[in-house]
């Protein structure tokens, strides 16, 4: 499901003005030290939460590593990646919490669960070194139940086309997210997704996103059974 900003505001009952106040946090993301393709085009922060849909509440959990199996991430899978945590004012803000709760409630309508284990990833992809790659691992699934990809900012770039394909077939859609707070909501078991590289257009460019993953079985762990 692709939600344009006005639709996201209505469907998820969000205040886009309050969300706009969060965008400054993307200006302070530290560099991703784990890129295995040799690039330096990505900056990010990471945080984890537990959401109880029936109560409409979320709780932050102790900072932890981000881990994925190679099944889902051939480039960075099997590696415990300790990214810098989300800034405390961001994670505590009412707009941030409402965003996570509203998306989780929508997903719980499709797949009722007692709680969601959520990982939040702030990304900035830039063109300072030439090409920036939003998904260096290529087309992929994330190994969760649902994924929300939210465009926070996009300036002076071309490219960055998002592609979503049926995981069991050949059908798919392609589009470019251009307006802040455009949201792509995906059932991770049914689709694979990727975003094409970006290039500078009229000066050094950036593409800022927030990726939220929702999983019922707990956070992905290195010793988790297949």
Task: Describe the secondary structure blueprint for this structure.
Blueprint: E1 2-3, H1 5-12, H2 16-20, E2 42-52, E3 57-60, H3 88-92, H4 94-110, E4 116-126, E5 146-155, E6 157-159, E7 161-166, E8 172-176, E9 183-187, E10 191-195, E11 198-200, E12 206-215
Protein model, in words:
The chain has 226 residues and is an alpha+beta fold. It has a single domain, classed as Jelly Rolls. The protein is 15% helix and 33% strand. The chain has a seven-stranded antiparallel beta sheet with strand order 1-9-5-12-4-2-3. The longest helix is centred in the middle third of the chain and has 17 residues, at 94-110. The chain is globular and about 45 Å long.
Topology order in helix (H) and strand (E) letters: EHHEEHHEEEEEEEEE
The proportion of residues in beta strands is 25-35%
Under the CATH scheme, the architecture is: Sandwich
Assigned CATH class: Mainly Beta
Fourth CATH level, the homologous superfamily: q2cbj1_9rhob like domain
Q: Fill in the CATH topology.
A: Jelly Rolls
Q: What oligomeric state is this? A: single chain
Low-confidence stretches: none
Count of domain modules: 1
The first-to-last residue Cα distance is 28 Å
Q: What structural class results from the helix and strand content? A: alpha+beta
Tell me the Rg in angstroms: 16 Å
User: What's the arrangement of strands in the largest beta sheet?
Assistant: 1-9-5-12-4-2-3
SS field, number of helical segments: 4
């Amino acid at each position: 499901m692709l939600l344009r900003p006005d639709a996201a505001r209505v469907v998820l009952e969000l205040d886009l003005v309050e969300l706009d106040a969060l965008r400054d946090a993307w200006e302070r993301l530290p560099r991703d030290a784990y890129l295995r393709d040799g690039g330096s085009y990505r900056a990010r922060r990471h945080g984890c939460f537990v959401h109880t849909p029936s109560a409409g509440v979320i709780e932050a959990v102790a900072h932890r590593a981000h881990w994925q199996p190679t099944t889902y991430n051939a480039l960075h899978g099997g590696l415990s990646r300790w990214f810098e945590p989300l800034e405390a004012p961001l994670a505590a803000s009412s707009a941030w919490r409402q965003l996570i709760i509203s998306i989780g409630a929508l997903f719980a309508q499709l797949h009722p669960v007692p709680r969601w284990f959520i990982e939040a990833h702030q990304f900035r992809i830039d063109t300072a070194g030439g090409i920036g790659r939003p998904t260096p691992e290529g087309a992929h699934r994330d190994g969760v139940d649902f994924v929300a990809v939210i465009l926070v900012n996009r300036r002076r770039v071309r490219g960055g086309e998002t592609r979503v394909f049926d995981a069991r077939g050949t059908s798919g859609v392609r589009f470019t997210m251009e307006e802040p707070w455009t949201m792509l909501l995906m059932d991770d078991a049914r689709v694979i997704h990727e975003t094409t590289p970006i290039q500078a257009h009229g000066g050094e460019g950036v593409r800022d996103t927030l990726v939220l993953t929702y999983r019922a079985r707990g956070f992905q762990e290195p010793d988790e059974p297949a």
